[in-house]
Amino acid sequence: QVHLEDSGGGLVQPGGSLRLSCVASGHTDSIHTMAWYRQAPGKDREFVASITRAVGIANYADSVKGRFAISRDNAENTVFSFLQMYRLKPDDTALYYCKAVVLGSNDAWGQGTQVTVSL
Prior knowledge:
- By secondary structure, the chain is mostly beta strands.
- Helices cover 0% and strands 58% of the residues.
- The strands form 2 sheets. Strands 2, 4, 5, 6, 9, 10 and 11 form a 7-stranded mixed β-sheet that branches. Strands 1-3-8-7 form a 4-stranded antiparallel β-sheet, with no helix packed on it.
- It is globular, with a radius of gyration of 14 Å.
């Protein structure tokens, strides 16, 4: 079983930056991919970015390409995933969730961290 804890959200002005963090614990060797999703009020949850745990191949939603950067750090029994967000826009306002794609098991999700981009 994999447990995720995400953090780092907050209030930031348009054009500002923020860094989200996710810590995975438990059976982390079974994690294939770490990802970030977001859900704005009244909208469906959407994919933001992902990165494979072993090789570090990253993918991004078109809406965040060139502004967001995902990374990961593998430690003993722990996997860290970071989402560095630059040039934030009001449309980036959402509840951001960390997700782990776990081989042979259900995906794991964090509890969510709120990002608000506003003056």
